[in-house]
Amino acid sequence: MIELPSDLPADLVPLSWLLGVWEGTGVIDYTAGDHHFTGEFTHRVSFSHDGGDALNYSATAVLLPIDEDGEQVRLNSEVGFWRIARPRTASDVGPGLLPGSEALVSRTVEDVEALRNTDEAFDLEVSIVHADGVTELYLGQVKGPRIDLATDAVLRPSTAKDYASAERMYGLVQGHLLWAWDIAALGAPPASHASARLAKVS
Question: Regarding beta strands 20-32 and 135-143, do their DSSP bridges make them parallel or antiparallel, or are they unpaired?
Answer without folding.
Answer: unpaired
